[in-house]
Amino acid sequence: MRLVQFLIFFGIVLTIHTLINYYIFSRGLKTFEPGSVIRKLYIIGFWALAASFFAGRILEKVYLSHLSDLFTWAGSFWLAAMLYLFLAVLFIDVLRLADKLFPFLHHLQGTIIGSKPYLLTIGVAAAVFLIVLAGHINALNPRTHRVNIDVPMANAGRENIRIALVTDVHLGTIVGKNRLERIVSRINGLNADVILLSGDIVDEDLAPVIRQNLGKTLQQLNAPLGVFGVTGNHEYIGGAEQAVAYLEGNGIKMLRDTIITLYDKVMIGGRDDIQSNRFAGLNRKSLSEINSDIQDDHFLILLDHQPTGIPEAVENGVDLILCGHTHHGQLWPLNYITQAMFAVSWGYKKIENTHVYVSSGIGSWGPPVRIGNRPEVVEITLNFQ
């Protein structure tokens, strides 16, 4: 049954991907003279890039190699380029439609664009290339976002707890050894009391993670109170049990619908990802089952990958819930979609008595590109008063 669901989902995604690419391709094709060399190069190059992402991901399953890496990298960048090419072509088509109603583009007929329309295609492609390049540089340079939360709590046993929160690393072909080393160095540089990884630590397929021995780098994460994580939807897409075993074997304590004592009256809990049912046929426990034994004078920190669990956390009196998943859209203007979908798409918010932080994440899914937001490590300081 799950195989049928996957095939239907994959078919829908592939259809949408093909239609968008064809729309972009057909508009660009009209600007090249029939039979010209540049037209032939455009046709070959366009569809090679359009097919590269799916080719790379499929090839990874059967023959993990430098060739599969090449296809995956090219296809990942193309996904970002495809979005902005689509927006550019759509904008031009809207202008043309408006021109038919209220003519205002006639003066372009005598210009170089009027005589050589392929220059417009090349110009748009060049602009998109620069946008994607800038987004890639942005994705490689995370910031540290600091949040202070005052907690009215007596006899906490210490003045504060400093948390390093990291979400959505997406370890794999795109986020590999060199990038992970920089991420680990940044996290350890905070000298936090505890390190929390709120899901999507690995990017679906575990094979590229094992090939690069990324677990050895994860072992360098160091905090006095420990390193904890939860599953995200991508762990379940690739096989959660294998991912959890690998992460726990490399020093990360995975919390799966459970709560443990972090320090004195400070508790930490983690929920299995909400899509565990869809990908593995598992039903995660309700929050009321998980925290039924928590005393009122204790402070509960909850890791839940997707922000869909925020209302339930508020209802059950969770003190602090930490999420990821949204990437805050990752590519503008997709942030408007995540803002519409979730109560919090990014950042800090207090809802009733529950403190909420949703991180934009430090890695990326698909394109190694971020536009309109910054990747981040979050340093949260709980000040007990």
Kindly list the characteristics that best describe this protein.
Purple Acid Phosphatase, chain A, domain 2, 2 domains, alpha/beta, six-stranded mixed sheet, elongated, 385 residues
Account of the protein in words:
This protein has 385 residues and is of the alpha/beta class. The chain folds into two domains: 2-137, no CATH class; 144-384, Purple Acid Phosphatase, chain A, domain 2 (4-Layer Sandwich). The protein is built from 14 helices and twelve strands. The strands form two sheets. It has a six-stranded mixed beta sheet with strand order 1-12-2-3-4-5. The protein has a six-stranded mixed beta sheet with strand order 6-7-8-9-11-10. Helix 1 (2-29) crosses helix 3 (66-101), helix 2 packs across helix 3 and helix 3 (66-101) packs across helix 5 (118-139). The mean pLDDT is 92.
